[in-house]
Amino acid sequence: MDSLLAIAYLTTLVTILGILGWLVVRQIYKSRQLESVISDLQPKLQKETGTPIDYYKLGSVYLNKKLYAKAISEFEKSLKSGGEGMAEVHNALGFAYFSQQQFDLAIRKYKEAIALQPEYVIAINNLGHVYEKKKLIPQALESYQRVLEIAPDNETAKRRAASLQKRVS
């Protein structure tokens, strides 16, 4: 009986350690990928003018690393360079501003993204979220309802709209 308990305990311990080891290795791999992008793009962008995509990629890496000021700088450079995909850049800028609790700037950037791409569900959801943070419940609810008109199966919008409906009622 004691040996069965010891085997069960040991098996559980090995399983937990295996899962933790896998999580650590996965995190190291992700970090190395981000660092690889930085080490490839930073020198290139310091020597020459990059493409909007280069600035966007570097900004996205900084955003993942929670280096919001650097991300904003790179996204602004991407906008100045012009090109396609600017709605995504405005949305990413909005997210960076939101993360720094600069809600009015985030709202402006999300609205610019939506103006460029009126059915950009992610930006509309993000706009609803920032309205919630500012306690602008009617505007937030309107944003989520707009998402549901475009993408009726959007789980985030469904959940947030239902929650806001309860608050309003």
Reconstruct the topology from this structure.
Elements: H1 2-47, H2 52-64, H3 68-81, H4 86-99, H5 103-116, H6 121-133, H7 137-150, H8 155-168
Helix pairs in contact: 1-2, 2-3, 3-4, 4-5, 4-6, 5-6, 6-7, 7-8
Which labels suit this protein?
169 residues; Serine Threonine Protein Phosphatase 5, Tetratricopeptide repeat; mainly alpha; flat
Description of the structure:
The chain has 169 residues and is an all-alpha fold. The chain has a domain of 60 residues: Serine Threonine Protein Phosphatase 5, Tetratricopeptide repeat (Alpha Horseshoe). The chain is 84% helix and 0% strand. It has eight helices and no strands. Helix 1 packs antiparallel against helix 2, helix 3 packs antiparallel against helix 4 and helix 7 runs antiparallel to helix 8. The longest helix has 46 residues.
Shape: flat
Q: Measure the end-to-end span.
A: 59 Å
Broad structural category: mainly alpha
Q: What is the CATH C level class of the domain at 110-169, in words?
A: Mainly Alpha
Q: Please provide the ordered H/E string of secondary-structure elements.
A: HHHHHHHH
Strand content: under 5%
Count of runs of 4 or more consecutive helical residues: 8
**Low-pLDDT ranges:** none
CATH topology of the domain at 110-169: Serine Threonine Protein Phosphatase 5, Tetratricopeptide repeat
Radius of gyration, rounded?
A: 22 Å
Strand tally is 0
CATH architecture of the domain at 110-169: Alpha Horseshoe
